[in-house]
């Protein structure tokens, strides 16, 4: 057999369920989560550039967001309460993610590896991109919580409160802008959204 398995593995992100410790009204997978994070990260970057005059490439931010959870293809999604239980677990998981990212990178032809290395191996080196992707990841989690609570799933109430608090404490003005202009609409019904 010849060829490289990188993109075939990326396609399997749809098989990895998120929020595994919670009862979900609708299961979310890593692939759809990554798409939403990319949409939100792109929006935050556009807000930074167009509203606050910052210098950032929204396309580069969106690409970073698309691949932000790629190592989970090999590691699975470790639930947040476990991942952040203590500093030792967090650091050990970061090391596991790096090994997974390196393995994924090795599944690309050598001539493509330099282009994908920043997306897989050097995700935290560009502080602006990293901060925007991290904020978008938190926004995506909050939106998931809103959707679950709206569907009557009280399992997500505490997560919604905690995630909202984290977003309100986020120092990025792009996050404050997004929350002020867009967050309330996620609680609306389809009919309500169409009449705005």
Structure at a glance:
This protein is mainly alpha-helical.
Describe this structure in words.
The protein is mainly α. The chain has one domain (6-194): Orthogonal Bundle (Hypothetical protein af1432). It has helices spanning 6-11, 30-50, 58-66, 72-75, 80-83, 87-105, 110-120, 127-150, 157-169, 173-182, 190-194. The chain is globular. The termini are far apart. The model has no long low-confidence stretch (mean pLDDT 90).
Give the SSE layout.
Layout (H helix, E strand, L loop, with lengths): L5 H6 L18 H21 L7 H9 L5 H4 L4 H4 L3 H19 L4 H11 L6 H24 L6 H13 L3 H10 L7 H5 L2
Helix pairs in contact: 2-3, 2-8, 2-10, 3-8, 6-7, 8-9
List its traits.
11 helices, 196 residues, mainly alpha, single chain, Hypothetical protein af1432
What is the structural class? Answer: mainly alpha
CATH architecture: Orthogonal Bundle
Helicity level: 55-70%
Distance between the termini: 54 Å
